[in-house]
Structure to design on (522 residues):
């Protein structure tokens, strides 16, 4: 297993339970710091201390799983071997690629130069989120711009959540009237799922967040305080929060045949097998799937991957199929959140999750916010150990969903939007 | 779903004007689709991107987004924006008769 993050950890733990005791499982990662990534969103607003989000990777793995701290140089797919940075070769019967996505700052001009960490920030890394907390605390007003450079990114709703929380934070500090808050995105809407886009666009408008769409960021000019697009449009800023383009792990690009142009691994979205060879499986953000790069996706992929790996080792054809199930709590500020739950076939719809009695879907509620907060404990104690969560299986539940109904319209001061 | 006629052939389009059935496309239709999007005439460089887009779709079952297009086609993002202003991947996909490139959402 390459990668001891969300996908690698939960997959290793599931496999340890289902495989024979003499089947050896090794998890390889470059460091021993497991980051609770959903917590990054809260760090800039002083809502989560950075130190709380990190725990040792090895401690999240069941007994009987070896943890090897090492940099992977490449995968020799032909020889079924992982090559470590020192040249050592680790042979495998099955490889699980779980090395996630990383930020490609160098793909956008200006993100690695002067001004980075001063006027231009990201909350997509722990140091970045911590630095941004300081910048926000001393922000006296002006233009705050949140820029989604391009897909794919981890947790595509997080940039929107950042806007909602920034609105809340600035109001709480009496600064909102002195700040022009703008969301700049490469997409043609706030979100690409139609029903959800309508709901989230309405919320942005209600919170006074200006939206600039189809803006493909070519350059971030920190000194001049402006974003410049490939088609020569400009958006000025005093403080910019940038979500950089993502790519797969370095070693994927160095491994012949394994990755695509951005270093993601072409994967069969059903069986979770890499297209390069049937004994290579992929879980989580490392795959090139259409499904969101999100922890919930890795969680729902877990049982499918574990079953198919076990069947492969037993010389049987993989028969479990991932449906693209995704589940996101979208924090909207002021102690509320929206919950969405969808798969490859069904867009986010109204109703309740996971049964007709449960958390409200596609609607702001306090209950969903509490769900989001409770998720941190669930993550360490149920998701990573690869336990089943009552009522929430791998397949997307349909019982509480009401796809026949249009999503509820948001009530605003001015009437119905 | 709507229909349109390009080069005397009736084709099915989705709400945003992308082909719902890529097999209804052939190269003769491309100039008419491009003209409707304000791109005329199609240069050799346009054709390079359109044919690349078509091949990628046929091989991988999905159209690449602009970053992947730039990395794999050999045409830089900046030039892609000159050739297909506003949204190179979307426009090239539309002219190549393949579904809209989707990101990972």
């Amino acid at each position: 297993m390459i990668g001891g993050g969300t996908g690698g950890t939960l997959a290793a733990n599931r496999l340890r339970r289902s495989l024979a005791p003499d089947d050896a499982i090794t998890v390889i990662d470059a460091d021993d710091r497991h980051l609770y990534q959903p917590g990054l969103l809260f760090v800039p607003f002083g809502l989560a201390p950075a130190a709380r989000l990190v725990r040792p990777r090895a401690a999240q793995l069941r007994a009987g799983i070896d943890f090897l701290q090492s940099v992977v140089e490449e995968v020799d797919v032909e020889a079924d071997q992982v090559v470590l940075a020192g040249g050592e070769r680790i042979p495998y019967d099955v490889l699980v690629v779980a090395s996630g996505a990383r930020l490609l700052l160098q793909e956008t001009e200006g993100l690695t130069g002067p001004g980075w960490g001063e006027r231009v920030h990201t909350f997509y890394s722990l140091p970045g989120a911590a630095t941004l907390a300081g910048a926000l605390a001393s922000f006296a007003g002006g233009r705050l711009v949140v820029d989604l450079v391009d897909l794919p990114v981890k947790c595509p709703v997080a940039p929107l959540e950042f806007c909602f929380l920034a609105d809340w934070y600035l109001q709480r500090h009496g600064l909102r009237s002195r700040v022009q808050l703008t969301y700049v995105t490469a997409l043609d809407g706030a979100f690409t799922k139609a029903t959800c886009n309508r709901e989230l666009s309405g919320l942005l408008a209600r919170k006074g967040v200006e939206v600039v769409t189809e803006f493909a960021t070519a350059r971030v000019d920190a000194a001049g305080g402006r974003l410049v697009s490939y088609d020569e449009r400009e958006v000025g800023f005093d403080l910019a929060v940038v979500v950089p383009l993502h790519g797969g792990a370095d070693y994927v690009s160095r491994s012949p045949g394994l990755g695509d142009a951005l270093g993601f691994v072409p994967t069969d979205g059903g069986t979770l097998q890499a297209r390069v060879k049937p004994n290579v499986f992929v879980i989580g953000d490392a795959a090139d799937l259409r499904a969101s790069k999100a922890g919930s996706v890795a969680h729902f992929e877990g049982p499918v991957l574990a079953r198919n790996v076990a069947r492969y080792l037993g010389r049987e054809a993989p028969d479990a199929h991932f449906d693209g199930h995704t589940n996101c709590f979208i924090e909207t500020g002021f102690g509320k959140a929206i919950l969405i739950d969808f798969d490859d076939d069904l867009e986010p719809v109204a109703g309740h999750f996971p049964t007709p009695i449960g958390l409200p879907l596609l609607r702001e509620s306090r209950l969903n916010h509490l769900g989001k907060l409770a998720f941190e404990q669930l993550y360490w104690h149920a998701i990573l150990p690869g336990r089943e969560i009552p009522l929430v299986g791998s397949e997307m539940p349909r019982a509480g969903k009401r796809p026949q109904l249009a999503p509820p319209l948001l009530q605003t001061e001015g009437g119905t939007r | 779903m709507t229909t349109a006629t390009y080069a005397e052939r009736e084709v099915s389009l989705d709400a945003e004007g992308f082909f719902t059935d890529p097999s209804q496309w052939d190269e003769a239709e491309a100039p008419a689709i491009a003209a409707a999007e304000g791109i005329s005439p199609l240069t050799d460089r346009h054709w390079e991107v359109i044919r690349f887009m078509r091949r990628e779709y046929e091989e991988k079952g999905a159209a690449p987004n602009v970053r992947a297009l730039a990395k794999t086609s050999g045409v830089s993002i900046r030039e892609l924006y000159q050739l297909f202003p506003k949204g190179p991947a979307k426009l090239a996909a539309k002219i190549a008769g393949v579904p809209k490139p989707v990101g990972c959402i």
DSSP finds seven helices and 25 strands in chain A. The two ends of chain A are 49 Å apart (CA to CA). The interface with chain B takes residues 107, 150-153, 156, 187-188, 191-193, 214, 216, 218, 230-231, 245, 260-262, 266, 289-293 of chain A (CB under 8 Å).
